[in-house]
Amino acid sequence: MNYPTLEDAVGKTPLARLQRIGAADNATRNNIILGKLEGNNPAGSVKDRPALAMIKHAEERGEIKPGDTLIEATSGNTGIALAMAAAIKGYRMVLIMPEDLSIERAQTMKAFGAELLLTPKSGGIEYARDLAMSMQADGKGKVLDQFANFDNPRSHYESTGPEIWADTHGKVTHFVSAMGTTGTISGVSRFLKEKNPAIQIVGAQPSEGSRIPGIRKWPEAYMPAIYDPRHIDQVTQVSQLDAEDMCRRMAREEGIFAGVSAAGACWVAQQLSQTVRDAVIVFIVCDRGDRYLSTGIFPA
């Protein structure tokens, strides 16, 4: 008998209907809002899917083999997922991340055996991305490059999108996702649009001056190569204050303990719900709230 491995635990995450947040308006308009609980993945986020996919397909193409060094610039969740995937597959993992990200994320990466290289806060993730490519050019390892690696959206096209379609019995009318690397929204939107072109795809981006971990509005020079705007119908801005408030509300009112980017997508889903009727709106709950405890978002 072939028993499952940890890889087999990635994906197949549940949908959970919001019961209290916006309940009156949703009932009046006959809308249902569903969160896809990606924090249920083994390493705790939606990034488990592309992390394993990028390594798996790179191995199939002969680009890497166990024992090699992998390098990646990350703002957090991809780094944790890659650290887990590298531990499963037998790689040395070097992660480059800005120094101002939460201590829980850094500690979790180290727990999986990854090596961390912290970069100045002032340089942001853009500096970390440049440094990763420079290290690859110097022969220090292979950059999987979540921002330009089409195995990232492919993983969502092959798993996340089909799960949403199946679990809503094809009744999903709107899909909302935070936009970071844009892998999730690009992959899911492509699948859902193939099933039903009328499904509306909405991205969540931070408003001017807002810092929301996991959501970015990229400078043109750093726009992820995997971003495919053809299947995205609308991009909605969410403020840091609104996202953080929704983060606390999700925990208190729904029992969904999630991060700020997930809350930003939830806020956008709620705004969307006020403009439509008879809708089934699915948003991505990208990770869990326990990796944000040190940031002060949640009450002490």
Instruction: Briefly note the structural class of the backbone.
Output: alpha/beta
Major sheet: arrangement of strands: 1-2-10-7-8-9
Q: Report the end-to-end length measured between terminal Cα atoms.
A: 48 Å
Task: Work out the strand percent.
Answer: 15-25%
Share of helix, binned: 25-40%
- In CATH, the architecture of the largest domain is 3-Layer(aba) Sandwich
Number of helices, counting only DSSP H or I runs of 4 residues or more: 9
Shape: globular
How would you spell out the order of helices and strands? Answer: EHEHEHEHEHEHEHEEHHE
How would you describe the oligomerization state of the chains in this entry?
single chain
Q: Output the radius of gyration.
A: 18 Å
CATH C-level category of the largest domain: Alpha Beta
Largest sheet: 6 strands, mixed
Low-confidence stretches: none
Any idea how many domains?
2
Give an overview in words.
38% of the residues lie in helices and 17% in strands. By secondary structure, it is of the alpha/beta class. The strands form two sheets. The chain has a six-stranded mixed beta sheet with strand order 1-2-10-7-8-9. A four-stranded parallel beta sheet has the order 5-4-3-6, sandwiched between helices. The chain is globular and about 60 Å long. It starts with 14 loop residues before the first strand and ends in a 15-residue tail after the last strand. The relative contact order is 0.17.
